[in-house]
Design goal:
By secondary structure, the protein is mainly β. It is built from 1 helix and 11 strands. Strand 10 and strand 11 form a beta hairpin.
Length: about 160
């Protein structure tokens, strides 16, 4: 076999790997109308935990705002949209019953210590390295099925730069 054939095979293998990896990376981003949902993730939970949280970034490329009004997951009894903020020097968590506005031309990051999706009454622990199904419902864009990647207990979501 000549050097040309080996090089050609190496180039083909690299091209196939690039396409496969690009597809896997893109599979963790979702679009619905003018909204792009990037990197839904959660932290693993210890056995016996009754709550967990979901995080992601929602970008709105449209000319009108939209609103995240609810979320559902099969692994929790209830799901609420929450905000954490400082009040009188104390971190306070509260539900946002009217939903979370995604401004026109803007984005909102759901992250630890800020906005998040609260999974309450867990039916089973979330295990690192797995993914779990969920559905986000927006006022205008409608229902969007997503998969939350379950990262380690101390994860910050930074394992996915650019998201």
């Amino acid at each position: 076999m000549s050097i040309f054939h080996l090089t050609r095979r190496a180039v083909m293998a690299a091209a196939v790997a690039t396409v496969a990896l690009t597809g896997a990376a893109m599979a963790h981003d979702y679009k619905a109308g003018t909204l792009q949902i990037d990197h839904p993730w959660s932290r693993a939970t210890p056995g016996g935990a009754s709550v967990a949280a979901g995080y992601l970034v929602v970008k709105n490329t449209g000319a009108a705002p939209d609103r995240l009004i609810s979320a559902t997951v099969p692994f929790a009894g209830r799901v609420e949209i929450h905000e954490m903020s400082m009040k009188d020097g104390v971190m306070v968590m509260r539900p946002i019953p009217d939903g979370l506005t995604i401004p026109a031309g803007g984005s909102v990051e759901l992250k630890p210590g800020g906005y998040h999706i609260m999974f309450l009454d867990l039916k089973s622990p979330l295990k690192e390295g797995t993914s779990v199904d969920g559905t986000l419902t927006f006022e205008k864009a409608g229902s969007v099925p997503v998969k939350f990647t379950v990262e380690g207990l101390g994860a910050s979501g930074s394992a996915h730069p650019g998201h």
